[in-house]
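Page 42, continued from yesterday. The earlier attempt failed because a stray header line got pasted into the input along with the sequence. Redoing it now with the clean sequence only.
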Amino acid sequence: MALFSRRRAAGAGPLDGVDTVLADLDGVVYAGPHALPHAVDSLTRAAESVRLGYITNNAARTDASVAAHLRGLGLEVAASDVVTSPQAAMRLLAGLVPAPATILVVGGEGLVDEVQKAGYTVTRSADESPDAVVQGFAPEVAWTDLAEAAFALKLPENEGGIPWIATNTDWTIPRERGVAPGNGTLVSAVHTAVGRLATVAGKPETPIFEEALARFGARKALFIGDRLDTDIMGANRVGIESALVLTGIDRPKHVLAAPEGSRPTYILGDLRELHQPYPAAVAKDGAFQVNGAAVRVSGADVEIVSETGSQIDLLRAGAAAIWASGTPVFVLRVPERLYDDPFHRP
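This time it went through. Structure tokens are written below.
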């Protein structure tokens, strides 16, 4: 989905016609314990007219603890409003190994809680002959936990080995002090040791989105995320509109370089823009114009034709021009001005 591929009614915004908004958490609502600027007020306002749910790949916490965190920030949230990657993992696991099988869990309370609620027995040791391995992120996951997973997964599945499900494979996770390694790095460590690939439940795979759409009865949903490779790709795979908000991981340079399957319907500087008219990118005289900003691709050069107005509109125009060119950004000469990044990030 490209932001310039749809005809929009004059004055239409991202929420027009939407009945369900699904929001990522880290980098969208909060970074660490604290809310990101404008997130709570903007989501509270959205909840007045749409069903609001939250999707998180973070497997470290329970749905109840996530809901409590969000309530502490000022949002009205119940545990049932939160869809976690461990919940999606349990949907996958149930089709492979019936309860009450023994599951080797690599992860924290959020994952253990869902495994137990699904009726499985939890172990932390490969010596207890587990029937499957489920792996998710938690800050306390150690080398010894990864080693136990590797020991349990030493046989390939086609040679009688047990299933391996990863809640998610996010390479990084935003924190107050910066960007830290995510579950993808830990899953990769086990993969390197055993030469096997995990089945993934969370974004960008579809199980977590399918769980959310079914739970909330969504007919027309909008997903809000801060990462192109998980949030936006996943929304595109399941066929719903998406908004990339520049308050988390991905920056303007990533937007301009986004491959086709990871392009958002909307690009937002922050969540206030959910409630503002979203300008169409209009093709004119070889350039793409968004309000007062216009950008074109001429051969190997990306040219800024005009840049009156806001930085977010210049980024939208640049993305429209580069995406429409069909040329990978790494072979283009891109003005540094398009990479300017005044947007808030943790």
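Notes: DSSP finds ten helices and 19 strands in the chain.
Reminder to self: strip header lines before submitting.
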